[in-house]
Design a protein that fits this description.
Helix content: 10-25%
Strand content: 25-35%
Number of strands: 16
CATH architecture: Roll
Strand order of the largest sheet: 2-3-4-1-13-16-15-14
Number of domains: 1
Length: about 300
Amino acid sequence: MIKEIKGLHHVTSMAGDAAENNAFFTKTLGLRRVKKTVNFDAPEVYHLYYGDEIGTPGSVMTYFPFGNMPKGRRGTGEVGTTVFAVPKGALPFWKERLGTYGVTGLSESSFLGEDRLRFDGPDGDGFALVESAERGRTPWTGTDVPQDAGILGFHGARFTLQDAAATGELLTFMGYQKDEIDGDITRYRIEGGNAADTIDLEELQGAKAASQGSGSVHHIAFAVDNRAKQLEVRKALMDTGYQVTPVIDRDYFWAIYFRSPGGILFEVATNEPGFDRDEDTAHLGEALKLPDRYESHRAQIEGLLPPIEA
């Protein structure tokens, strides 16, 4: 069993309009844009990162806004809901705020004793807020969202799957423990990591498969402390039969990727070096940062990227 994984690192999704995406996360949700860079494989497309003050692993939602990309179709084989944690008692604030901003899909529920508020992102993304203990986390306070209501980071994620058994076995191998069950949903929790420590598997037998587009999660990333731990995880996965990519330098972390049995793309990302490697913490996410191989094409790339607000 793998013991190096520390919970979630980040979740990466696809979007349509970059300015709309930026406004939703920085203004509506009150997160900090901690990095403005580009897709490594498509430099004419932004890669935008949103999180807490420094982009702590376990707090970062990232996006590829592909412009006129068609919306994805919800279904099985995907991360159906990305779940953020907010302080105890914060859901009434968020219900009013999201309603004021015209956010769709608002619904309240309780799951395993947790009060939840579900809502849609601008492209139909599935999100939920869950009241949670702060567990040492502090929200970004650079917006009009008060600290006692601000988003702390991820609580976890919910996968929608045709058959949850194989993915459950994989999570167990990755260090998660099978926790509670409520109907067709089984919770897995990892101990001794960060606070983004839950994965819920929802089994929807007979449902149609998802198709990716704007509003779809592209991949979900799990955290390890450093590159040495990452190599241990890679070896363990490959020894078990998974096809894992070589280590890839993503500037702010190193990454490996593999496909889960349920069809979801998993990443294992390092907590090092972090988002302050090329920007002072006070100015994270302000300037356009380019991978070295694209720096000589900066003028051309800047001409292709749509403007977004600071």
